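Problem 3 from the worked examples.
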Amino acid sequence: MNTARTVNDAPAPDPGFSMLLDDQLCFALYAASRAVTQRYRPLLDDLGLTYPQYLVLLVLWEHGAVPIKDIGAALHLDYGTLTPLIKRLEANGLVRRERVADDERTVQVSLTDQGEDLRTRAADVPAAIGAAMALTPQQFDEAKRLLRLLADNVSGGGSDNVSGGSV
C-alpha cells in the first residue's frame, strides 16, 4: 500500500494519470465548451443575447413563469450570478420580475410579449449548433448522457471510484 503524501497531505499522484495536456479530459471539456460557445456568439448577437441570457430564456420558453430559484437550479447558477442576467433581460424588455403575492420572498420571472416573440427568431439556433457539431443523433445523445453523468459525479451525486486516465 502506498502511503506517500504530498506537502498538502493529499494522496500521491496515481501513476496512471498523465501530466500531458492532450491527455487531460478537463482540457478537452474546456476546449469543446469554448468552441461551442463561440459558435453560438454570432447567432445570439443577431438576437441581442449573450449565451447565459439565452439559457435563461430557454428555461422560460419551456416552463413559462418560473421563480428565480428554479431557474438557478435548472441552470446550476447561484442567485448572485443569475440576478444580473435577469435584470439585463428585464431592461431589454424580454422578461418581467414580480414578487409572488402570497410569498414576498419569492420572485417569479415571466416572459413579456417581446420575450415570447424572440422564441420564433431563435428557433433556428439549435439546428445551426447541431449542424456545427456534426454528430450523429446517437453520438449527440451519448455525449449528453456522458456529460450529464460527469457533471453529476463531479458535483457529488456519483461514485467516488476512479478508473484511471487523466482528468
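Problem 4, a separate protein:
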Amino acid sequence: MPRSARRRLTPAVAVVAATAAVVAVTSAAGAFDGRQQAAGAIRGGKAKNVILLIGDGMGDSEITLARDYTVGANGRLDMDRFPLTGEYTTYAVHADGTPDYVTDSAASGTGWATGVKTVNGRISKTPGSDKPVRTLLELAQRNGYATGSVTTAELTDATPAVLASHVTDRSCQGPADMAKCPSDTLASGGPGSVAEQSVNHKVDVLFGGGKQRFDQRVTDGRFKGRTVTEQARSLGYQVVTDDAGMKAAEPGKPVLGLFAPGNVPVEWTGKPAATGGTAPQRCVTSNPNRPSTTPSLADSAAKAIQLLEAKQRRHHSRQGFFLQIEGASIDKQDHAADPCGQIGETAAFDRAVKVARAYAAKHPDTLVVTTADHGHTSQIVPLEATPPGLSSTLVTDEGQQLKVNYSTNTPGQSQEHTGTEVRIAAQGPLAYRVLGVTDQTDLFTTIREALRLR
C-alpha cells in the first residue's frame, strides 16, 4: 500500500485491516504475531473513557445458551458484535503464589482491578502479605477521571468491591460483617467494611443492590452510630432507591443508588433444573417478585454514563470516565441451576452492552471491553442425554428443544465455577490487546495504558 494511502486509513478501516491481518497471520505464525499485526494497524492508543462490562460467571456456554434461546443458533447478541475477540485465563493463586485453578469472583476481580493475582475470597489485597494494592478506580480518580460502578448484585459484593475497597475476606461487606477481617476494622486502624470504603472513596456513581449493608451502623470513627447511608449523605451523596429517583439524579454530586435490600431481583423466571430433567418449558419473561420501580441494568448503565460525562463537562475536564458495569446474577442463577433466570440476566446484560457500544459509536475515543470473571457450570447437551446431575429442557424462540445440564456439584448443592478461560472482546483504543490468549491481569494493564494512568 502506498504511504499516502496508509495515511488516509480511518479508524474503522484500520480495525478491519487489523482483523484481516490477524486472520492472515494467525494460521501461519500464531496468535501472538497476529496481535502485533493488529497493533500496527490501529493508530492511536489513548482513550478518553473506558467502559468495562463484566458478565459474572458468563462463560462461552452461558453466552451460547442465551444466544440459542433468544436470537437463535445463527443469530448474534450485541456482545457478539465486537470487532476484536480473544480469551483470557482466570486462575487464582494460593498464599505462596502457586496456581489455584478455579477462581472465585473476589480473586478474579482483583486480577483485573489491580494487576495482581490473589487468593480466593480476598478483595484487592496481596495473596501472602495481605497488603492493599491500588486499583484501577483509585488510579483513575487520582488522574482526574470520573468513576462509576453499576451492578445487579449488592454493591458490596465481590466484583464491585474490588474497585473501591481492600479487605481480607469478601464477606466483610458492612460494619456488622467484619468477623473475618479483624485488621480491617476501624477500631484496629483499618479502612472499615466494603460499604464504608466505597462511599469514603466518593465514587461518582454507585448503582446496585445491598441496601441492607448500607443500613448497618458504623461502629467507630467519625461516623460512629450512624448508618453507612447517613455517612454517604454526610459525604455529599444523593441517595436514590428506585428508577424514578435514579433518573432524577443531577450531576454535580455523587449518587448512591440502592435498588434492593440484597441482590437486585432477576428479570426472568422458570422451573429450575431437576434430577432427571424437566418437561419442556418456555421461560417467563417477567418476575412477580421484581418491583416495577426497579431500574434495568441497561437504564442504570445509560444514567451512569450520562452522569459521569456531565460531571467532566461541568468541570471542563480533559479526562473522561472509567465505568464498570456488572451483570451479576448470571452467576447466581447458574449456582442455583436456574436456566431461565440465567438466560434472562444474560439478555439484560447484553442490553447494557448495547448501551455501551451505542455510546462508543458516537465517542470513538471510548474503549469498551466485555468479558467474564470466570466460567460456570451450564452445558448444552443432546436431548437424549441422561446426565447424572440436574437438567432442564427449554423450548427456544426458534421453537426447538434444548437441554441444559448442571453437574459441577451434587444435586441440592450450589453448582460450582469452572477453571476454563473465558471470552474477552473489545472496541476502541488499545482494543487489539484482547486478541489471542491473555490473562485477567493483562486487562489491568490495557485499561491503565489506555487511560494513561500514572
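Solution to problem 4. The CA atoms of residues 282 and 395 lie 5 Å apart. The two ends are 37 Å apart (CA to CA).
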